[in-house]
Amino acid sequence: MEESRLAFAKDSPPLAIIAAAKIADVSLTIDPSLDSGSVPTLYLGSGDFIHGINTILRYIARGATFPSFYGEDDIQAAHVDQWLEYASVILSGSEFEAACSFLDGFLTSRTFLVGFSLSIADIVVWSNIADYAGMLDEVVEAYVGRRGIGKSPAPSLKENLQCSKVNTSGLEIDLPGAKVGEVCVRFAPEPSGYLHIGHAKAGLLNNYFAERYRGRLIVRFDDTNPSKENNEFVENILKDIDIMGIKYDTVTYTSDYFPKLMEMAESLIKQGKAYVDDTPRKQMQEERATGMESKCRNNTVEENLLLWREMINGTEIGMQCYVRGKLDMLDPNKSLRDPVYYRCNIIPHHRVGSKYKVYPTYDFACPFVDALEGVTHALRSSEYHDRNAQYYRILQDMGLRRVEICEFSRLNMVYTLLSKRKLLWFVQNKKVDDWTDPRFPTIQGIVRRGLKIEALKQFILEQGASKNLNLMEWDKLWTINKKIVDPVSARHTAVLKDQRALLTLTNGPEEPFVRILPRHKKYEGAGNKATTFTNRIWLEYADASVISTGQEVTLMDWGNAIIKEIKTENGVITELVGALHLEGSVKSTKLKLTWLPDIEDLVLLSLIEFDYLITKKKLEEDEEITLTSPILNPCTRRETLALGDPNMRNLKQGEIIQLERKGYYRCDVPFIRPAKPIVLFLIPDGRQQSAANK
């Protein structure tokens, strides 16, 4: 690329351009002679010139010797463009902290903003932060002298704010014996329900360590119980994994190994390391609890193999039998007291149909498949701690290599059920719509309620791989989420349909007129909206009820007005009359009011607020739920009808907005026709009371 001259104002050097040019090996002549406030200009050797930071950055990136500088394909290039637009948010002091939180969440499991290598998106974002040390300091000093020649975009913020990667101090531990490039971990959900926030912790931690050690991540379906599993759950678990941005190398199924698992079970029987037991299940549990040996424990190999054949064929005799490991019935660790390895089940399997009548238990199949698939480190929650010895003993009896177990604490949330069996009860008893219900802690449920995956990642990874058991509050998660959505969520206006009051402006416009206003005053990427101004506008009744005659108020996005008269009937406000006072100071008014024009184009809204499904903070493992349980929350969904500005006809499903002075909402059902309301779900922000307590 030919040598060019970069002209700019000395008090605001374009750090992004200078850094990008250095990285792309573009020769620049520096000319800091423009007047303060001037747009940077790149003068080319051909006589042409280019104005504007982003335009110059794109020019440099397109001419770079490595193509990824502007994305490796059209989609990545579009993502780079989005970041170039978003970068300006960082320059706004009031939005700096929120922008940093957004970046923290986005970079939870990424190294670069776009793709897998450096692009101008990274350059422009970090240069706008301006506190980023190292290369930028070197570039600026080399080209335009010490940093003091210019003014930092946010000069006083570094003392109070830090924009860093998500705090993963809890994760900065070494996997035992791990070597970069040789680590293999696995995420092994059972396809008996959708993934929930507890599974998210396991999945994201496995993903983190696979990336940290440049290793492999296997997604394995532990499909060993056909009574609970089906293809719907398989498909939606894969969808959940995709939603969380987990990058895996392959998908496998424990059912792929059924033949080898049966061979191993038979081999252990022949070696005298396992036996077949026809003791009734309840009696077996009692004997294990007291350390009493089964009457079948000393069966001959031939007797065991005969019963094993009965199990394989699913006969009446076989259906009463179990294969048990012959470990130690007197071990203080009860998981080692001859655990069950195989049991019968004649229900067809969702993948292999009725081919098998016997299925391995998780405790038997997991170590076997881990070893065969090359897993080096098995991450699992500390609730399985007492079964770690069992895991290693089974591997030893099988003659397989050791797989290191790495524990982390189970994630428990207040007022939340994470047992798939109990969640299924809510689905089957119509207490929720389905597994994606916004009241559910499933991945699809919380995303549907308005949680951004970036917030979930930040929340999970900040906890790290600690083994400490704790009961987490939802407020912290929703607070993180708010910091991510606030800087980029478009602003709209709504008033409650049945709780509104009319304000007539005597000097208002005789004919309605329209102004084009930004949907977000500090984020251009949100686009614009058309706002209609009329002499009759709707106010919230709650606002109208606190206004006094003669009071001056501010109508947001318009100006001040003075209330001249308040008309009532039987103590109910029927109308307010006022006059615009646009020359008035908005700083002097106490009330800043949202409003809507009295026009036919207003859209009908259904505002939905959700509450916890149960009223008990922590449900014990053995605590069951019935239709008469006192812990069932009788009111978990509340709907309020409202009117919204006409621009909301364009909302897309899944779009998150802020209704001014009401909160953040996710669009669940977009505009279809005037008589059918747009459905918006209120997103908790970490401060709202539960609906049941209001």
From TrEMBL:
Domain Glutamyl/glutaminyl-tRNA synthetase class Ib catalytic: 182-485
GO CC terms, sorted: cytoplasmic stress granule; cytosol; methionyl glutamyl tRNA synthetase complex
Top enzyme category: ligase
Compartment(s) of residence: Cytoplasm
Domain tRNA synthetases class I (E and Q) anti-codon binding: 593-668
A Pfam family this chain is assigned to: tRNA-synt_1c_C2
Annotated Glutamyl/glutaminyl-tRNA synthetase class Ib anti-codon binding domain residues: 490-577
Recorded family membership: Belongs to the class-I aminoacyl-tRNA synthetase family. Glutamate--tRNA ligase type 2 subfamily.
Name under which the protein is recorded: glutamate--tRNA ligase
Native species: Digitaria exilis
